[in-house]
Amino acid sequence: MTEFTCNVCGGKNQTAERTLDREQSTCSSCGSNVRTRGLLQALSSELFGVSLTLPDFPRVKSLRGLGTSDDNTYASRLTEKLDYRNTFFDREPRFNLCDPAGLEARAYDFIISSEVFEHVPPPVDNAFANIFRLLKPGGVLVFTVPYNLEGSMHEHFPDLHEYAFAEVGGKTILVNRTRTGEVQTFDNLIFHLSSGQPSLEMREFSEDALKAALTKAGFSNIRIYSATYLPFGIIRSEECSLPIAARKGTFSFSLDATREIAEEWRALQQKHTADMSRLCRSFWFRLGRKLRLF
Q: Rounded to an integer, what distance in angstroms lies between the CA atom of residue 74 and that of residue 51?
């Protein structure tokens, strides 16, 4: 059995190692899986340089972040710690990766996304370019997406323009009118569940194609988080579809963020000093220390 702390909620867990695959829920408290825990570990490493549980994140409201249809399990906790807001494609607050109208360029320290880019209408290069534009210099995109290690990216509907779904003979098909007016039909569609709703798979990524698309958008320091991390119950059973971080230039911690962390650390030190002072007035505490019981 493997014991681990869920870095999403802080819950303690014990499970068979073979159950720690990418998508299976393995936290008995919040239901997180390896993918979600890996995503949050990557975010922690990119923001703070260490692997922290989300409850242990410092409260740094000068770090501004944006979520793209993030799961509320971690979105609500990120809101408590950072200047973060979650957005959605189909409801308010809305954010369309292909047309980020109303969002300020160079405004975000981080953007987080899980299993979204495979559903973005083509060309997906536009989505990566828009994310790059929204990030501050030194900002980072942390995301997961299914991908393989061989071949090139395969666009299922490269000429997608004006399209709709139809039910024919009990089967869902996609009908598309291209920019040149050609009518196309597609069956054998692949849908993934996203927030409980079916979402059409637009493409199959490869690792090389992802790196090329990120580089084309302007990202540098592209890092794939491939290492197993047992303290958080993160076991990499596959060599693909791993969390990825892509940074816009060189990372630098802002003065405001540094000040907030220093102030939080000072407050914790003061609390520790006050607690120790109170305990030292207790006869039983002094006796326990003298007997080296703690």
A: 15
Which structural domain, as residue segments, surrounds residue 33? 2-149+202-252
Residues 78 and 214 in one domain: yes
Dihedral angle computed from the Cα positions of residues 113, 157, 95 and 221, in that order, rounded to the nearest 10 degrees = 40
- The answer to whether the CB of 166 falls within 8 A of the CB of 175 is yes
Query: Model confidence over 149-206: pLDDT tens digits?
Result: 987 899 999 999 999 999 998 999 999 999 999 999 999 999 997 666 789 999 999 9
67, amino acid identity:
G
Residues in the chain: 294
The H-or-E segment that residue 200 falls in is strand 197-200
Whether 268 and 216 map to the same domain: the answer is no
Residue type for 168, please?
V
pLDDT of residue 65: 97
Q: Which two structure tokens, joined as six digits, stand for 55?
A: 């409850």
Judgement on whether residues 60 and 194 belong to the same structural domain of the protein:
no
Are 125 and 97 in contact by the 8 Å Cβ rule? The answer is: no
Question: What's the token pair of residue 117?
Answer: 């880019």
> How many Å apart are CA 22 and CA 35, to the nearest integer?
5
- ∠ CA(5), CA(62), CA(46), 5° rounding? 45
Count how many domains the chain has.
3
Element housing 48 (H / E)? helix 34-48
